[in-house]
């Protein structure tokens, strides 16, 4: 019986792919299938996958035209037959017992999904760097399992909205028809945060089990200049899901605060001319659409974010034409 289906979207990562594959093939949990979805790579990635497939019968290969990581993960999910789903990124690498520890935790607490800790591997200095904000342990209860209602801060900021540091029970994912958005960036936010608020039983492994590579030119974040609107599409899709599940009323303040945080993070990390384009869109449309504009200062959890938002609105309005 396959315990975990590991789903690995692959696109032009020849430089890092072997290290990633070695860290999956060498997992201490052996009852796994490794579904590699080549997303139209134009470098040597596909050949590397084929070579590994010859050596390890657990590797399954799906080839598709370039459609992005969200579409690749959905294709992998459709093919998966494991009890659990792990969505890894092909430029990252993992501790040898990551899947074993996450799976044992999931089974022990009969959880819908498990979150584990991670750090960053900085390419320039070749060193591991601790990242406390990816898993805010101080906000989770001192017992397991728990649900989002027992988190003590904004539920959308306790864990990051990416999928690779989590292990999901496949029956839970299928019961709620969870899918990744098929867009260039921010394609896992809808999946991850929908799961977060729908799960009745969440558990955590408080150990670093995954290493995120930073400073890689193949990283998805490099494409954000071209797909700067994707984060807004992700936020509005999440809000629709919360409304459909009849829990938006309960999570509205957390959602609006997270929406402001994510808008500002995207704006602050974009270069010109995209920065100016996004600033105008936020000030004249999206802040209002997301429900931020009509809320008083006391509604917001972060004074510094609120002050940046007010400054943007002032400069946006004085900036003139928005036709």
Helix content: 40-55%
What class, by secondary structure content?
alpha/beta
Strand content: 15-25%
Q: Give the oligomer, counting copies of the same chain as homo and different chains as hetero.
A: single chain
Notes on the structure:
By secondary structure, the protein is of the alpha/beta class. The chain has helices spanning 14-25, 45-55, 69-79, 98-108, 155-158, 170-175, 189-198, 230-244, 248-268, 274-289, 303-318; strands at residues 4-10, 32-38, 59-63, 84-87, 93-94, 113-122, 127-129, 166-169, 202-214. Strands 1, 2, 3, 4, 5, 6, 7, 8 and 9 form a nine-stranded mixed β-sheet that branches. Helix 9 runs antiparallel to helix 10.
In short:
This protein is an alpha/beta fold. The protein is built from eleven helices and nine strands.
What labels would you give this structure?
323 residues, alpha/beta, nine-stranded mixed β-sheet, 9 strands, 41% helix, 17% strand, globular
């Amino acid at each position: 019986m396959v315990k975990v289906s590991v789903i690995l979207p692959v696109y032009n990562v020849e430089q890092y792919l072997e290290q990633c594959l070695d860290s999956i093939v060498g997992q201490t949990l052996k009852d796994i299938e490794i579904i590699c979805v080549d997303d139209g790579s134009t470098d040597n990635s596909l050949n590397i996958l084929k070579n590994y497939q010859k050596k390890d019968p657990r590797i399954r290969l799906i080839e598709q035209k370039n459609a992005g990581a969200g579409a690749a993960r959905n294709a992998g999910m459709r093919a998966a037959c494991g009890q659990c789903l792990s969505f890894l990124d092909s430029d990252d690498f993992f501790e040898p017992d990551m899947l074993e520890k996450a799976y044992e935790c999931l089974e022990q607490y009969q959880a819908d999904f498990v979150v584990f800790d991670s750090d960053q591997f900085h390419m320039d200095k070749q060193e591991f760097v601790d990242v406390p904000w990816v898993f805010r342990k101080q906000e989770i209860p001192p017992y397991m399992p728990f649900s989002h209602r027992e988190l003590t801060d904004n539920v959308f900021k306790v864990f990051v909205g990416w999928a690779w540091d989590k292990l999901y029970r496949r029956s839970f994912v299928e019961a709620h028809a969870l899918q990744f958005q098929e867009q260039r960036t921010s394609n896992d936010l809808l999946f991850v945060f929908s799961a977060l608020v729908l799960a009745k039983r969440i558990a955590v492994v408080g150990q670093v089990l995954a290493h995120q590579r930073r400073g890689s030119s193949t990283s998805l974040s490099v494409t954000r200049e071209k797909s700067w609107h994707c984060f807004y599409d992700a936020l509005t899709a999440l809000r629709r899901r919360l409304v459909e599940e009849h829990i938006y009323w309960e999570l509205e303040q957390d959602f609006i605060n997270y929406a402001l945080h994510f808008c500002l993070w995207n704006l602050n990390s974009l270069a010109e001319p995209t920065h100016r384009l996004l600033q105008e869109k936020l000030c004249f449309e999206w802040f209002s659409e997301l429900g931020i504009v009509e809320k008083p200062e006391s509604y917001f959890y972060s004074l510094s974010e609120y002050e940046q938002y007010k400054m943007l609105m002032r400069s946006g309005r004085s900036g003139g034409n928005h036709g």
